[in-house]
Design goal:
The chain has 684 residues and is an alpha+beta fold. It has 3 domains: 3-52 and 162-237 and 347-369, 3-Layer(bba) Sandwich (FAD/NAD(P)-binding domain), CATH 3.50.50; 239-335, D-Amino Acid Oxidase, Chain A, domain 2; 401-669, 2-Layer Sandwich (Nucleotidyltransferase, domain 5). Helices cover 34% and strands 25% of the residues. The chain contains 19 helices and 29 strands. Strands 3, 4, 5, 6, 11, 12, 13, 14, 15 and 16 form a 10-stranded mixed sheet that branches. Strands 1, 2, 7, 8, 9, 10, 17 and 18 form an 8-stranded mixed sheet that branches. Strands 23-24-22-21-27-28-29 form a 7-stranded mixed sheet. Helix 12 packs across helix 13 (474-483). The protein is elongated.
Length: 684
Amino acid sequence: MNREEILAELKKPWDIIVVGGGITGAGVFREGARAGFRCLLLEQRDFAWGTSSRSGKMVHGGLRYLAQGQIKTTWHSVREREKLLREYAGMVESMGFLVPYYEFDRLTPYLLGAGLTVYDLMAFRYDHSQLDAVNFVMQIPAIDSHGLTGGVRFRDARTDDARLVLRVIQEGESLGGVALNYVKVEEVCKDKTGRVQGVALRDEVSKENVEVRGQLVINATGVWADELRSQMGRSPRMRRLRGSHLIFPSWRFPLAQALSFFHPADNRSVYVLPWEGITLVGTTDVDHEHSLAEEPHISYSEGEYLLDGVRTNFPSLNLTAKDILSTFSGVRPVINTGKANPSKESRDHVIWNDNGLVTVTGGKMTTFSFPPGSKMGFISAQAAELTGLPKGLPLIAGASDKACEVLGSGCLEPHQGCIGFGTTATICVNSKHYVEPIPLVPPYPSAKPGAYNLEFQTFRGFWMVSWFKEQFALKEQEIAQERGVATESLLEEMVAKVPPGSLGLLLQPYWSPGLRYPGPEAKGCIIGFGGVHKREHIYRALLEGLVYSMREGRERIEKRSKVPITELSVCGGGSKSDQVMQITVDVFNLPVRRTKVSEASGLGAAILAAVGSGFYPDIETAAREMTNVGSVFEPNSKSVKIYDELFKKVYSKTYRRLRPLYRVIQAVTGYPEIPGKSAHLGVE
């Protein structure tokens, strides 16, 4: 949608309104959209304009937090770093870090070595090594070698912070969310009881004021969080800490690897790293006393502090203030606990619920999301009153419905396919690699940490069974009501009378247009009619067409992922039909298992809850213990031959050959509706 269309859409009610377009807001927005909520993200300036574009460009586990005893924060950071390296390969890059040892500090090698061992164990890999003085100088030629005894090399990561935010927002939009910037939220709107029910905003482009209604308003504004909370009568809880950085041209400060050193003035950790053709030096950690309406900037004392550290460790470069190319500063959202040393404040995130205004703040770039199955917190007294859930009940991070469905089917490996025959028909696999089965349509994050769900879907899946019942099976509905049975049982008898292939009747199930494949012009079709065909042939062709579309999805996934699908599980309402299961087996020519629980998505959510509650140590163990194989169906060789020929020689060519005609039909009739044009359906 363009900006005008989004603004017109604002007046409709939303499920979730997220205020703040930094990394935290982007993450909440993406997860809300993934869960199927109607989700709106609002940002007063450019996305990532604030703290999220002014970080130290590092995606790190927080070795400093480990030294301060913040074990939980370090563990979460390390695991999230590993996940980001997998999920955003190329955007989040592994980077070597070096730390020098000097003869005047004999304890550092032992303490740092022990800390890095724990650091690596958290990442489930041993990835640090000791260097002698000669090899260390070869890595960093300009380092001060006087008294140098060696050093250590370990691994962390770096990223383009603003691009990462934009990527997460785009993922949220691809999942159906709507994001809009240059709209300033001026106040929260409340009902008569004082509960928040929306926001009043000002469009900075048109200068119009708009009220937007939503069931939940999430305050993800970072250091600005207290401004919205003050409207709920809450006192300030944020400590605004400024981190400033120096930028040197790489020719003046050449550096091949990142280096961390202890500042001579206060023994605080400072880093220098190569980034985008420059050398970055950071960072400070001081209280920000200026107004947030002003652009944050480095102070003279901060500049001297960083420059002094660089001069001490790189004396041969003779760096001066004139060599500094630029500076930038960001203000960190940190929870104020009153510690005298700003660097000792915890970087953990918090969640506060102020009568419908939910504030999510704190944390850092690396830890903007929770992995599925992790404990996020507990149900508060207010949440218990609103929801009826018991106070103190653990709140466990979940995953999308389809991600839970794949997990609940026990399909954790890339060769294990999960077909969901629900309202939408889907075939999914888990993969540790980012692969797009349909180009430019991103895969979903999996319920299995560090993995993706590669998915192909037919939007009107077993919705078509309901459509058939309403349009063609009124007689069966009446008989079923008289007998006190489900209509589907009579349809099951009906379809059993028709041979595989439906006597040449073939259905392409694109009853609804798609985004890329099928495209926005797509329509469904039934071809091959003859005098022998009756309602039961149409119904069987409908079921066969849905399964054909799943086989097409399998071939797309296999082609893009390079991994053949050799095991198949089927769940969802459609899996209850033996006829559907046998058609699936014969079309795929694979033994297929029916999950014991048809609502596999609910079981997947239960698996995550079991892991988060500590009943199982990990998702793999929980899935193995909690999923059970139901009936297994075997292929019929005669049916396999018929379906294979029909799929290869007819079905797989149908959409491609009819697509030009669909476009003509769309242009003539206006249906499916062309964006920007009203449909012409012959009705005045």
